[in-house]
């Protein structure tokens, strides 16, 4: 992983556009709002990208650089349509897509492993197993493992220097 | 800088160039330009590049030679790619003598030039071709000679142009050969030139690691390639070249080998306000060549070049995207050296550049045809540029104090940068030059105007791009500005409308932030804490308790305190609220029933249910009341308010928490509103609450009245049992969902001297009923015979003597049968003045019915009716079953012609089940009377027995016959209960005496009309012993088959049962008909005849019968029918009087003997 990347924030958004988890790394408290805004506004751009991808029949999960707003916002959509949005610190050098994709893959894995937690379905009736609220609940503060995994990735990328 | 164009030089003898002929040819040649559809096949590129259109300079060789050439690598197009020589010569002799020499001279110079192609154009007149064409080609033409002389290689570089003064310029066939040759030549030369230049570039790039290599020199070299491509209109290749240069630049940058650059930035006075995408605003190439260019200028130049090429390609979206990325990224880089830049240089530069890019893009986009999606993304990316410009205003605004240093304004600060908001100290003495920014710095209002203008522009662009969420964010920014400027009502309006956009998808963090702002403004504006405020607050608390809700709100300690004060304020506000408020499904508080088992309150009516109220807020919430609503099986609803409860199983329907005038509702049931948000919740299994039966509580039951009389209004009996309490007042309301109406105002008490019944329109009220007392009230209702059973909702509201202040209410659903358990069928038989009536009673259900008595009574005693009953005396109780109906026969004798009142059939009966239940109850009661300790098991004992009987019907027959109730299949149990049970079984199996079982009987009264018949005819066939003396009373002589037998047919008519109105009628015409019974009898005589019947008169006629065989034969039947009476008046139909005939001889049989005597048979013996 290229050392110059700096991960400022990560957001997981459900296929129905419900926020699952929004994590910021070492950001001033008053910037929390900024990253929530970024996660929210990114959905517009992701929608545009999805439309373009459907038009071109692309099946790539990686949606590329979504937009720049003193951080570089990248998007990724898992095959099950969970959207992952990351905000990288802007740098004046070229960011290789492969590095960004590597971060996304790690985050996707963290999410998959967290959602596989069978206890998420503990109090849900069986006919409801496909309910997206389970996916959303993975980011709930009651489930620490997901946060820990995401934080670990943030640290590994260089979020905590 | 305009791109260098392709040049073609031409040469010709000077004498020819001066002619008009040449001028015309030149003009015609120009008209064929630009060249179209050139296909460049390059050895180094996989694909053929197609150039749609290429502009070409056509100049004379002399003019071109005068231009100087520099050492700096220019584009390969700088030198002419093709040199043409024009020959006009029709005559081979002339050619050989003079022209050839001229061409050779020219040829020797052109072939020395590198990367240049040559072409000899031979112009001929059409008439010359015509003359030469007419003759045999004895001699080679001039063109052939030229070709032979100069085409040394395989390539054909000679072309003929057939030129006529008057021919059509546009004629493409004339030009095709020449144009094709021109294209070939240009491409060939270009290819060679590019290949050579590429080789040079590659060589130079390979020396990158060597000392002395200079990026700037290399850049100029490689850029010449890009320029060449651009000149050839090969924009993609040009762009690729610049992109490669950019990548190389970053590589070099990473290697930190920037010695050939000047400083990072050398701010010039107007740097911050010049249009970003102009590559001519500074002498960039000279700066590069001089190695003095700053990184800032270099990057700007590179971007401008890239964008201008993209502009040619029409890729405006990409231009804007590149610009945003560059401005943001390079702006970030400039921050590192902010202290040497003029104050606000970065902001001003970014601001002006972003806006200038938007303008430039718009300029490039005019005339472009874009599809819908492209227009949207173009607008979106322009929005991003405008927003970027807006962020610069944020930073400037905060630093000069026009804006507060807090979100959302402070969001524009790059992360990890200084946050003090003050103006950074700078060593630069320069000032920024953007007039808008300068004005905004000075004047607060100008700043706000620019700020709002820019923001609205971004909103507009985002809106047209379909980026709703970006636009929302911008609206939030505007509202924040309104707050700062004290325009609170505008801000409040925005902040109260924004949450609705964030709530639907659970963006509670943003929602709560908006609501938090709204609440803050509300307080700041000192608005009254009205309904609106309460709802904003509730929404805020809702978002607050959700997972993400707290994330955006200050620090932890603060917000607990803040929420506590809010809840406190809410409590005050709800107390002062003018009307009741309700709010559904607030997540801050949840009400659940952890244990579905309610308890009975020991000495009071009602049940207790444990309810768990969970408060998710970090502070106490004052609540006045908690209400639970339960739904029962029949849709019965129960409000759990610590008062009476109907036993049964319920599901939790809804709950409520009241705080003064505010009530919070939650719906738990599985009959949800169809909204999608509750769809997931509705799938949860319902919470069941079971409420035990409180035997000692007030109870109301319904039943059919013990005595029913058909034909009178139906009634039901309400059995009101007070239970443990002395009820001071109870109002009872009955209603039936089926629409049957109850006449409460006609309710009457049964068997009671208590006159405390107050009948009202909708309810009847009982007052002062003592404890443990049952009051029966009979209530009439509208016809319900269409139903088999009737469901009745009973609502009781009552107060007790012990707790006069508690109003209890009880809602019950009872089902009461409305149909009769019996079906009755009537058959009448007339015999003269008597009538036999047979009632067939059958059970309509599977139940056995015990009949005590049936009795037919006249309504009036003076009716002259004598009723006698045929009844076996041996049995007191009859049982009828569905298979075995009971028949009851009555004989009526009456005087003639009276107007008869209907009779009434009284049936006293009960259903076997009721009887057995009462038998069991009385047995249990009598056995329990001895032991008080067993009293509590009474219900259990009865249940056990009844259930045992329900399971096995083997006891029924024996019980019905003997009264002995053998309870089958009860296992022997130990203990007190077991003993009692065993004792009971014993008692039931051996009833003490033969007396009628105890329990109540029911009575049903059925009105029966006395039937009427005009004529009752008694037909009789009498065999006469002596046909000549019909009256002789002798025994019949023996009768033989085949023997004629005289018989007398007598028909006696009686008008006794004629309806009263027809009593006056004295006679009827009638017809009789003796049945043909051809197997038994031959009838001779008048078999059919008419006669006049009169009351109590006999019609007589004689017939002769012949028995066809011997045996006991029954006489033929005689049918008698009345003939219609012609209608009186014109319109009346003929009237057929009713008539019934009975065969008086119906039971008689006659013995017919076989015929005796001798028979003679003559047999021919066959002899002569």
From TrEMBL, chain A:
<dbReference type="InterPro" id="IPR011012">
    <property type="entry name" value="Longin-like_dom_sf"/>
</dbReference>
<dbReference type="Pfam" id="PF04628">
    <property type="entry name" value="Sedlin_N"/>
</dbReference>
<dbReference type="InterPro" id="IPR006722">
    <property type="entry name" value="Sedlin"/>
</dbReference>
<dbReference type="InterPro" id="IPR044760">
    <property type="entry name" value="TRAPPC2L"/>
</dbReference>
<protein>
    <recommendedName>
        <fullName>Trafficking protein particle complex subunit 2-like protein</fullName>
    </recommendedName>
</protein>
<comment type="similarity">
    <text>Belongs to the TRAPP small subunits family. Sedlin subfamily.</text>
</comment>
UniProtKB/TrEMBL annotation, chain B:
<feature type="region of interest" description="Disordered">
    <location>
        <begin position="668"/>
        <end position="687"/>
    </location>
</feature>
<feature type="domain" description="TRAPPC10/Trs130 C-terminal">
    <location>
        <begin position="1007"/>
        <end position="1153"/>
    </location>
</feature>
<dbReference type="InterPro" id="IPR055505">
    <property type="entry name" value="DUF7077"/>
</dbReference>
<dbReference type="Pfam" id="PF23036">
    <property type="entry name" value="TRAPPC10_1st"/>
</dbReference>
<feature type="domain" description="TRAPPC10/Trs130 N-terminal">
    <location>
        <begin position="2"/>
        <end position="320"/>
    </location>
</feature>
<keyword id="KW-0333">Golgi apparatus</keyword>
<protein>
    <recommendedName>
        <fullName>Trafficking protein particle complex subunit 10</fullName>
    </recommendedName>
</protein>
<dbReference type="InterPro" id="IPR056913">
    <property type="entry name" value="TRAPPC10/Trs130_N"/>
</dbReference>
<feature type="domain" description="DUF7077">
    <location>
        <begin position="696"/>
        <end position="800"/>
    </location>
</feature>
<dbReference type="Pfam" id="PF12584">
    <property type="entry name" value="TRAPPC10"/>
</dbReference>
<dbReference type="InterPro" id="IPR022233">
    <property type="entry name" value="TRAPPC10/Trs130_C"/>
</dbReference>
<dbReference type="Pfam" id="PF23274">
    <property type="entry name" value="DUF7077"/>
</dbReference>
<dbReference type="InterPro" id="IPR045126">
    <property type="entry name" value="TRAPPC10/Trs130"/>
</dbReference>
<keyword id="KW-0813">Transport</keyword>
């Amino acid at each position: 992983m290229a050392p110059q990347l700096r991960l400022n924030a990560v957001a997981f958004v459900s296929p129905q556009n419900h926020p699952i988890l929004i994590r910021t790394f070492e950001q001033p408290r008053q910037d929390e709002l900024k990253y929530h805004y970024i996660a929210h506004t990114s959905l517009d751009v992701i929608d545009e990208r999805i439309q373009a991808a459907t038009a071109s029949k692309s099946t790539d999960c990686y949606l590329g650089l979504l937009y720049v707003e003193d951080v570089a916002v990248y998007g990724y959509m898992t095959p099950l349509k969970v959207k992952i949005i990351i905000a990288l610190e802007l740098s004046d050098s070229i960011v290789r897509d492969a590095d960004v994709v590597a971060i996304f893959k790690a985050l996707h894995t963290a999410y998959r492993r967290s959602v596989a937690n069978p206890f998420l379905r503990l109090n849900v009736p069986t006919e409801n197993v496909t309910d997206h609220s389970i996916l959303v609940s993975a980011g709930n503060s009651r489930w620490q493992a997901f946060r820990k995994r995401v934080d670990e990735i943030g640290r590994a990328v260089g979020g905590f220097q | 800088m305009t791109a260098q164009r392709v040049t073609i030089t031409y040469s010709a003898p000077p004498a020819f160039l001066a002619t008009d002929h040449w001028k015309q040819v030149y003009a015609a040649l120009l008209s064929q330009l630009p060249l179209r559809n050139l296909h460049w096949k390059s050895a180094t590129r996989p694909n053929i590049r197609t150039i749609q259109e290429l502009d070409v300079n056509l100049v004379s060789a002399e003019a071109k030679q005068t231009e100087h050439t520099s050492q700096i690598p220019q584009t390969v197009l700088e030198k002419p790619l093709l040199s043409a020589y024009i020959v006009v010569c029709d005559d081979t002799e002339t050619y050989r003598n003079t022209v050839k020499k001229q061409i050779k001279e020219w040829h020797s110079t052109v072939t020395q030039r590198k990367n240049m192609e040559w072409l000899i154009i031979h112009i001929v007149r059409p008439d010359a071709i015509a003359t030469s064409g007419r003759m045999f080609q004895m001699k080679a033409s001039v063109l052939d000679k030229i070709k032979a002389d100069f085409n040394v290689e395989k390539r054909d570089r000679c072309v003929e142009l057939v030129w006529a003064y008057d021919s059509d310029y546009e004629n493409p066939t004339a030009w095709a050969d020449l144009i094709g040759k021109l294209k070939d030549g240009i491409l060939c030369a270009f290819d060679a030139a590019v290949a050579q230049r590429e080789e040079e570039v590659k060589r130079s790039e390979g020396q990158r690691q060597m000392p002395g290599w200079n990026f700037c020199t290399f850049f100029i070299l490689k850029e010449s390639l890009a320029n060449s491509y651009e000149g050839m209109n090969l924009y993609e290749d040009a762009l690729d070249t610049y992109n490669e240069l950019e990548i190389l630049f970053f590589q070099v940058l990473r290697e930190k080998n920037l010695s050939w650059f000047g400083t990072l930035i050398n701010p010039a006075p107007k740097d911050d306000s010049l249009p970003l995408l102009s590559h001519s605003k500074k002498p960039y190439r000279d700066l590069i060549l001089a190695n003095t260019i700053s990184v800032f200028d270099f990057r700007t130049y590179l971007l401008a070049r890239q964008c201008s090429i993209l502009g040619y390609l029409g890729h405006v979206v990409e231009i804007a995207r590149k610009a945003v990325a560059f401005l943001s990224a390079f702006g970030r880089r400039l921050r590192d050296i902010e202290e040497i830049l003029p104050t606000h240089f970065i902001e001003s530069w970014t601001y002006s550049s972003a806006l200038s890019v938007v303008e430039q893009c718009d300029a490039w986009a005019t005339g472009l045809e874009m599809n819908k999606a492209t227009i949207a993304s173009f607008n979106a990316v322009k929005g991003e540029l405008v927003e970027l410009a807006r962020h610069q205003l944020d930073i400037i605004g905060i630093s000069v104090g026009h804006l507060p240093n807090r979100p959302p304004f402070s969001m524009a600060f790059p992360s990890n940068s200084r946050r003090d908001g003050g103006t950074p100290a700078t060593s630069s003495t320069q000032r920024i030059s953007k007039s808008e920014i300068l004005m905004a710095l000075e004047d607060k209002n100008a700043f706000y105007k620019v700020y709002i203008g820019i923001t609205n522009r971004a909103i507009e662009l985002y809106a047209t791009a379909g980026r709703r969420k970006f636009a929302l964010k911008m609206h939030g920014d505007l509202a924040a500005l309104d707050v700062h400027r004290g325009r609170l009502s505008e801000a409040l309006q925005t902040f109260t409308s924004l949450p609705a956009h964030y709530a639907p998808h659970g963006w509670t963090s943003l929602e709560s932030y908006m609501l938090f702002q709204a609440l803050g403004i509300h307080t700041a504006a000192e608005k009254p804490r009205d309904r609106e405020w309460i709802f904003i607050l509730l929404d805020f608390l809702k978002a607050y308790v959700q997972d993400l809700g707290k994330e955006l709100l200050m620090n932890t300690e603060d917000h607990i305190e803040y929420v506590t004060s809010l809840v406190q304020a809410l409590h005050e506000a709800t107390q002062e609220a003018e009307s009741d408020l309700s709010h559904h499904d607030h997540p801050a508080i949840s009400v659940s029933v952890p244990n579905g088992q309610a308890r009975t309150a020991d000495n009071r009516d009602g049940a207790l249910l444990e309810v768990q109220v969970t408060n998710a807020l970090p502070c106490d919430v004052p609540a006045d009341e908690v209400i639970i609503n339960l739904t029962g099986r029949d849709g019965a609803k129960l409000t759990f308010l610590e008062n009476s409860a109907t036993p049964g199983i319920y599901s939790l329907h809804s709950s409520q928490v009241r705080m003064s005038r505010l009530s919070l509702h939650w719906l738990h049931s599985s009959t949800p509103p169809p909204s999608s948000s509750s769809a997931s919740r509705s799938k949860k299994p319902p919470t069941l609450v079971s409420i035990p039966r409180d035997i000692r509580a007030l109870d109301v039951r319904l039943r059919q009245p013990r005595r029913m009389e058909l034909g009178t209004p139906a009634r039901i009996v309400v059995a009101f049992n007070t239970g443990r309490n002395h009820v001071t007042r109870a109002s009872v309301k009955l209603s039936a969902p089926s629409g049957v109406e109850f006449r409460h105002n006609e309710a009457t008490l049964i068997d009671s001297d208590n006159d405390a019944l107050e009948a009202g329109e909708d309810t009847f009220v009982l007052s002062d009923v003592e404890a443990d007392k049952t009051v029966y009230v009979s209530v009439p209702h509208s016809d319900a015979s269409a139903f088999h059973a009737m469901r009745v909702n009973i609502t009781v509201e009552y107060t007790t003597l012990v707790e006069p202040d508690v109003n209890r209410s009880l809602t019950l659903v009872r089902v009461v049968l409305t149909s009769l358990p019996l079906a009755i069928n009537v058959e009448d038989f007339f015999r003269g003045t008597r009538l036999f009536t047979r009632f067939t009673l059958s059970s309509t259900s599977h139940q056995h019915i015990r009949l005590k008595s049936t009795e037919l009574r006249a309504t009036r005693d003076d009716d002259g009716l004598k009723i006698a009953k045929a009844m076996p005396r041996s049995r007191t109780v009859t049982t009828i079953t569905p298979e075995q109906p009971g028949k009851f026969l009555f004989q009526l004798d009456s005087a003639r012609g009276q107007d008869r009142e209907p009779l009434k059939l009284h049936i006293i009966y009960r259903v076997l089940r009721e009887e057995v239940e009462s038998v069991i109850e009385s047995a249990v009661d009598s056995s329990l009377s001895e032991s008080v300790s067993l009293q509590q098991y009474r219900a259990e004992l009865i249940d056990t027995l009844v259930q045992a009987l329900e399971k096995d019907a083997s006891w029924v027959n024996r019980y019905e016959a003997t009264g002995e109730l053998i309870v089958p299949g009860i296992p022997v149990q130990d203990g007190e209960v077991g003993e009692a049970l065993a004792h009971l079984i014993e008692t039931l199996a051996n009833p003490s005496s033969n007396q009628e079982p105890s329990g109540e009987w029911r009575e049903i009264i059925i009105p029966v009309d006395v039937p009427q018949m005009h004529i009752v005819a008694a037909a009789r066939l009498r065999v006469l012993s002596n046909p000549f003396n019909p009256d002789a009373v002798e025994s019949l002589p023996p009768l033989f088959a085949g023997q004629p037998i005289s018989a007398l047919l007598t028909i006696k008519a009686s008008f006794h049962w004629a309806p009263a109105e027809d009593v006056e009628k004295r006679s009827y015409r009638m017809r009789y008909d003796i049945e043909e019974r051809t197997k038994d009898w031959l009838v001779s005589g008048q078999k059919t005849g008419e006669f006049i019947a009169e009351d109590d008169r006999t019609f007589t006629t004689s017939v002769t019968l012949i028995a066809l065989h011997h045996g006991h034969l029954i006489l033929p039947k005689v049918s008698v029918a009345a003939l219609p009476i012609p209608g009186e008046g014109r319109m009346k139909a003929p009237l057929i009087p009713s008539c019934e005939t009975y065969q008086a001889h119906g039971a008689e049989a006659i013995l017919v003997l076989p015929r005796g005597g001798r028979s003679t048979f003559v047999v021919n013996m066959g002899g002569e």
